[in-house]
Every structure is written in C-alpha cells, then in structure tokens.
Specification:
The chain contains three helices and ten strands, in the order ααββββββαββββ. With 212 residues, it is an alpha/beta fold. The longest helix has 13 residues. It starts with 5 loop residues before the first helix and ends with a strand.
C-alpha cells in the first residue's frame, strides 16, 4: 500500500469520522481544503554550487568601508507553509564580490544568520557581480531548521541586465534560474545625509520551508 502524505492522511481521517469537534465531516473537510488552498508555496530549490564553505561566521554586516560595489540590504523571514514562524532556523548565505569572485579561502561575503524571535533576518552587503559560468547576479542560500526539510536555493535580481528588463519573459534565459519566483524586485534608495547611510538597493526574500 502506498504511503499517504499528511494531507491525504487527514482527509482520510475526516472522511471516516476520526476527527471531530462540533463540525460535520463535510464542514471539517471543507475547512481543511480551504486552509490548504491558502497555504504558502514552499520556496523553490536551486543548486548548491561549488563555492559553499562550512563555518561561515555569524554576522550581519558583510560590507566593509571602501568595498567596491553598490550597497545592498537583504531582509526576509523564515516561515512554514501556514505563514507561521519557524523556530531555531539557521540561514547561511554567500555570494561573489562586485567583480564576480568568491572568497574561497576566507569568509568575505559569507554569513550564518539566526532569525530573530519573529523570524526576521537581515544582512548588509554589496550587489554581487557577474561571472562567466553563471552570468546572472545571485545570492546562494542554505536554510535548516528542526522538523523541516533543508532548503538550498538562490535569490536573483529583477534589475539585472541579464534579464534584459523583462524577467517575466526572460527568467528561463540560458537555464540560469529554476523559478521565476526567485527573481526578486529591487528597491532603490537615494540614501541619507551622511556617509553612514549611502544610496543602496534592497531586496526581501522570505523563505518558506516544508515540514520534514
């Protein structure tokens, strides 16, 4: 007999009257199906790539004074498919520098993040550069959390010239991105009155994990 997934098991229990609580079986089933239809879609997976390094430091500021490249702030949350906080999650991210080079000896532009008590994470870095093997700008992610499937994915930028101003049309270009959902809108800010608040780009990348 084929193993049932969580949804199939619950539907079977409801249909056989094994779950109850003041609602009819039909109403329970309808309520369950309505909840499932509004569930968040898990974040699409991507390839790990050859430049992952274990042991990245816990740090939120990756950009140092004088670094080449346009300042970039990355924010997001780690949630499950019901939009609930995933506790004890770990977010590892890494990317190339402005010139398209990875630090393979140290931990430049690499971080290990622990989201806060509301699931938020953030990091200040620079826009990654282009390089011949993967000509679209991107940030690599590895997300783990107890009770959830580990996720390897990447974030891309809708402003990247690689997508020729139309990521909706060109997201499949050269087979670079696995999903259009991973190509994120970019917000641009002029900056403040001081050097401490320079012009910058921002993206928001919410991570939706599946239960294990």
């Amino acid at each position: 007999m084929a193993k049932l997934n969580r949804r199939q098991s619950l539907e079977l229990c409801i249909s056989r009257g094994l779950l109850f609580g003041g609602l009819s079986q039909q109403n329970l089933l309808s309520a369950w199906q309505a909840a499932e239809s509004t569930a968040l879609k898990p974040t699409p997976a991507e390839v790990l790539g050859p430049f992952y390094r274990k042991g990245a430091p816990q740090q939120n500021l990756l950009r140092a004074p004088g670094d080449a490249g346009f300042p970039l702030k990355v924010t997001g949350r780690v949630l499950n498919s019901r939009a609930q906080l995933v506790e004890a999650a770990t977010v590892e991210l890494w990317h190339a520098d402005h010139h398209g080079r990875y630090d393979t000896r140290g931990y430049k532009y690499r971080a290990r993040l622990s989201p806060d008590d509301k699931g938020f994470y953030s990091v200040d870095t620079v826009m990654p550069g282009h390089y011949a093997d993967r000509p679209a700008q991107h940030i690599h992610y590895l997300i783990t959390a107890p009770g959830h499937k580990s996720l390897i994915t990447q974030a891309y930028f809708a402003t990247d010239p690689f997508f020729e101003g139309n990521p909706d049309k060109n997201w499949k270009k050269n087979g670079i991105a696995e999903s259009k959902e991973l190509i994120l809108p970019v917000r641009l800010y002029e900056g403040g009155a001081t050097a401490a608040d320079p012009p910058r780009a921002e993206i928001t990348f919410d991570i939706i994990l599946e239960r294990a």
